[in-house]
Specification:
The chain is mainly alpha-helical and about 325 residues long. Among the domains are: about 30 residues, no CATH class; about 150 residues, Orthogonal Bundle (Lysozyme), CATH 1.10.530. Helices cover about 50% and strands about 5% of the residues. It has 13 helices and 6 strands. A hairpin with a 5-residue loop joins strand 1 and strand 2. It is rod-shaped, with a radius of gyration of 58 Å. The termini are far apart. About 15% of the residues have low confidence.
Length: about 325
């Protein structure tokens, strides 16, 4: 359709209508431009921006929100606690729950109970033993002193029994150098006594070593008594014997002027009385050792084994040839 537009001056104030039913002035239409009402412009801008934002292929950058530091630290702590709980779960899973508090307490109780059941005798005694008593070993004996005229409410004093200076020792208790010196010093006397009284030199040397502790015991130093020879005389002279602690506190031991007298008294003792029958063993030191034990030369139950151990360690039987 062709419209013929007259000049503007001829139109005057004639009003035309827009195809969208919007009234337009003839002057504005004649000037050649079109202007929509102001009410439609904001709505058009919003719709265009909405279409642009949701257009396919368009990258939308949203503004970054600033997080609160307290909230950030709270999130970090939550993640840490979750990791810790997960780690504990894995440990308990692969260790069968042995590291739990209740499990450890039960295991410790079982171990302590088993210890006291297995070591009921040795354990408590070792724990309750005083340092001085522990050093003295099994042989330390406690002896009570009785006090007369004292009130019964007062505790009884306790003292340790004096060390047995006359007890025979084993080869492990002797120093090798001291034992060798003793053998070198008295081997000649032992051989001479063997020739005169028929007592094996190895037996005499072994007895001298374990009875006198290689010549270092108080009985050997003060009394020159190398064989623990006791005194059973009721009317002995002064200086004939002295009191030493052995099996009881009333044991008296002979006192000699020199070690040679002690060796001669030992030979005379074994060549008479109940020891005389041991001569039938000749120079068999083993038979002599068990024979001395059987006739009661010493109260030590291991006396024969100690003699044999000393003889074989220092090869004393070579003096019996």
């Amino acid at each position: 359709m062709l419209y013929i537009c007259p000049p503007p001056e001829a139109l005057g104030t004639i009003t035309f209508f827009h195809p969208l039913s919007t009234p337009l002035s003839a002057m504005s239409y004649a000037k050649g431009f079109y202007s929509e009402p102001e009410a439609y412009k904001p709505q058009q801008k919003r719709s265009s921006s909405r279409r642009a934002n949701y257009a396919p292929g368009r990258v939308v950058h949203e503004p970054k929100e600033q997080k609160n530091p307290v909230v950030a630290w709270r999130l970090v702590w939550q993640r840490f606690t979750r990791s810790l709980v997960s780690l504990r779960f894995q440990i308990n899973r692969y260790s069968l729950g042995i590291f739990q508090k209740n499990t450890l307490l039960k295991v410790a109780t079982l171990v302590v109970g088993a210890y006291f059941l297995l070591f009921a005798e040795a354990g408590p005694q070792i724990i309750s033993r005083e340092p001085k008593q522990a050093e003295q070993g099994i042989g330390s004996v406690m002896e009570e002193e009785e006090y007369e005229g004292k009130p019964a409410s007062k505790p009884v004093k306790v003292k340790t029994k004096p060390k047995n200076e006359a007890a025979p020792v084993s080869h492990s208790d002797l120093f090798s150098e001291q034992a060798q010196d003793y053998v070198g010093r008295f081997s000649g006397i032992a051989v001479e006594e063997m020739k005169k009284f028929g007592i094996p030199a190895s037996i005499s040397l072994a007895q001298g070593l374990i009875e006198s502790r290689a010549g270092t015991s108080k009985l050997a130093v003060n009394n020159n008594n190398h064989f623990g020879i006791k005194c059973f005389s009721r009317n002995c002279k002064r200086g004939h014997c002295t009191n030493f602690t052995d099996d009881t506190h009333k044991d008296f031991f002979r006192k000699f002027k020199n070690p040679w007298e002690s060796w001669r008294a030992h030979s005379q003792l074994l060549a008479s009385g109940r020891y005389k029958k041991l001569k039938k063993y000749g120079r068999d030191y083993r038979q002599w050792a068990y024979g001395l034990k059987s006739v009661g030369y010493a109260t030590d139950r291991n006396y024969a084994e100690k003699l044999i151990g000393i003889i074989e360690r220092y090869d004393l039987h070579r003096y019996d040839r």
